[in-house]
Amino acid sequence: MILAHGVGSRADLPIPLALALYGAGLAVVVSFLALVLLWRTPRLRGDAAGIPLPGVVQAVVDSPVTRWLARAVVLVLTLVVVAVALVGPPSPNDNLSPYALYVTLWVGLIPASLLFGSFWAYVNPLRTLHAVLEKITGPAPAEGRLPSLGYWPAAVSLLVFVWLELVLPGRAEPRTVGVFLVLYGVAQLVAALWFGSGWFARGDGFEVYSTLLGRMSPFGRREDGRLVVRSPLDGMDGVRAEPGLVAVVMVLIGSTGFDGLSRTQFWQAGPGQDAYLTAVPGTIGLVVMIAIATALFVGATTLSGALTGQPPREQPGWYAHTLIPIAAGYAIAHYFSLLLLDGQATWILASNPFGRDGVDIFGTYGNAIDYTAISPRAIANTQVGAIVLGHVIGVVLAHDRAVRVGRHHATTGQLPLVVVMVAFTVGGLSLLLSS
User: Is the pLDDT of residue 389 over 60?
Assistant: First the structure.
């Protein structure tokens, strides 16, 4: 699973690890200084920006036929994965479901959302099931209370999933995957029947994750509903500060930090040496990493508010969107090779999902994973590039927001956040590349 998680060692880098860390931190600092000199007024326009796509494209995308066809296909595939998890081959190596959940869905959401926008909201199988059930149960009784929840439900559901993915012993067991999928689906559907279909945009961790990543897609929706081509920076600037948004991003950043920590010699020979037997050390490590990331970000943004005379308590929400490209950079660095390498198993096993003799639907069942599809050096280079680029974009977003809300003290107010971003850059690369 070391290759699967895309971990390069310092020997895989074309330059020494220390030099890579210094260079990455320097890139963030230089970006900030260049912005201070050249970017003196707000330039990002949020959801007001974008060049409309041709009307025929909008008509096809928004067509009920297109939407329901896509949802029907994804629902069928989801039901097959659940069935395979519960009654298919008992070995994780021979069962499609662990690969479908942890690789194809969780990791595949990243490129799909970055390319096509809020991809999962469009095909979410839970929305399809809810639309059917809603006709039976009638209107949601607590729909009016949903806005007050913000993104807190999504933060909780994401925390549950990353705990399953990174902590729970036996998490790759097909029956464990099947039980999780069933329980997660039931919980989400019950909540949606109570709060309405808007629940999924606030409570389904997979949909919220896809939607936030989709803000960096070149395709999006303008505030008037038109499909447009726009700068990813404008898309990110359109993210609104809502309760729980900081928590969602902190779960994403902290969990990838814990993933890196869990594969270091320090962890495996020390606190996590019994992690394969019990969930206690992993749970503590995951919570601590999320808490550290939260403390650094909230502390930095609160200090920025104090320095600029802005409301300190509102600062974390104002700048939460700056962490989304950082979270994306971490996710790409950690998992893109998982998709390219172990992701091949999804298509191999899909040719005979229930492991029946003589079944080979796509003619791929006898294939082996090609672990030479990408070199360790390419993995390491991508890791460094993704993390550095994510932080540089975060600095750009923070600077534009700073000159908008605290124009006369913009430079001073950004300093604490820039320091934290440098720390995130160096710390993230250290955990990732020093394993």
Answer: yes
